[in-house]
Structures are given as C-alpha cells and as structure tokens.
Amino acid sequence: MVTPEEILRIEQDIVYTLKNIYDPEIPVNIYDLGLIYEIDVEPGGEANIRMTLTAPNCPMGDILLQQVHDDVLKVKGVTTVNVTLTFDPVWSKDMISEEAQLELGLM
After folding, report:
1. What is the pLDDT of residues 28-40, one digit of tens each?
2. Burial letters 49-71, b for 16+ CB under 10 A, else e
C-alpha cells in the first residue's frame, strides 16, 4: 500500500514527466498546453490520466496518447497507466498556462 505522501510524490513526478512531452505542432509541453485534465494515482500505483487533444482530428493524437502511457509507466511507483481521451470539455486556448501563453505571444 502506498502512503498519501508517496501518492503526492508520484503525481508530482507524473506532472514533471508530462511537462517533457511536447505537441509536435506547438512548441509547448502538453501539460502547460492544457491537454491534461486529470491525474489520479490509486494506492496500488495505478495512474489514471484524463486528457484531450487540441482537435479531435489531431494527426499526432495516437502518438501523443501512446507517449503519455509509455512515459508515465516509467515513473517510479507507477504500476499501470490508463489514459482516457475526452473532448468534454473541448480544449481551447484559454486552457494554456499563462507562462505558455507568454511564450507563444498570446498575452
């Protein structure tokens, strides 16, 4: 059984990992881009990631989903990864972090 403190550490490590995955069409990582809606780590080490894409017909969607799965699975303490793709709510530029908006010249 994993302690609440360990779950918090795993979630922080997952965020760090997701900040190293970039949308190939936009020079911003998927976390700051606002594509990650939820990260939930169960006491057994199961990581559940709920995410979206910038558009339903994103040509890199399958690759991004697989990369999220594979990279999160490498995080210490993660035993399994479930990545759920959703379009509810629909992604918009408002979901981009302020830092990334500045980087992209949107502010």
Report:
1. 999 999 999 999 9
2. bebbbbeeebeeeeebbebbeee
